[in-house]
Amino acid sequence: MEDKKIRPVILLNMAVDTVNGRECEVLISQYAQRVSDSGAVPMLIPSIEKRDNIETLLDLADGVLLIGGRDYDPRFYGEEPRPETLLTRRRPRFDIAFGKAVLARAMPVLGICAGCQLLAIVSGGKLIQHLPNAPEHTGGAAHRAQVTADGFFSQACGTEPGNSLTVNSFHHQAVDPDAPGRGMRITARAFDGSVEGIELAGERMVLGVQFHPERMDDLGPRVFGLLRNAAADWKITRGCKSGR
Fold first, then answer.
1. Percentage of the chain surpassing pLDDT 90?
2. pLDDT at residue 206, rounded to an integer
3. Residues 6 or more apart whose Cβ sits within 8 Å of residue 154
4. Which CATH number covers residue 201?
């Protein structure tokens, strides 16, 4: 169901960084701008690991965007860090708690780059800590990716399984294809076979993409529009169930 008059609320996590010697919550504005441009309302959640905060803001939201960012500590998925893994992410436990709380709900979720990897981790999956051809995936390199199965990824990209498209690339890690997470299926792969898209089996939109659609004027509106429409449907469904 799609109603352009409905403006669902999308909850975005943020990064934590040091600015002028002080720890700050930060967000690259493209994420929020794409959410707003899609017809949804962006809402930010600070990286405070407090369950009441997380649950209260999720109560107000109709969908979730998990943003990109730095590497997650591989000890979250049972491995020791490799030398190439950067352990510079601040307050990493918040994202793990947030991701688990999000998956426990029925609302739609989009994970971008590290957000895609987070979906795998909180689902019990693992990552490849450093791709053997990592330079081909960093710095915004453009490469081909193939849709491998029907799903939300193919809907967002407007193409069918077996077809390819060009995406950008800003990562050196990727979801382990042998351990994408419980219930997660791989629906797109990069030119080298590495995972480009994962999603939860079933009707609920839980989609992770390894590329950065917020930086793409062709795919960006399609991907964020899909999240907006799924969140609008969830908002309507939730309102009907609550009698609002």
1. 93
2. 98
3. 147, 160, 161, 187, 188
4. 3.40.50.880
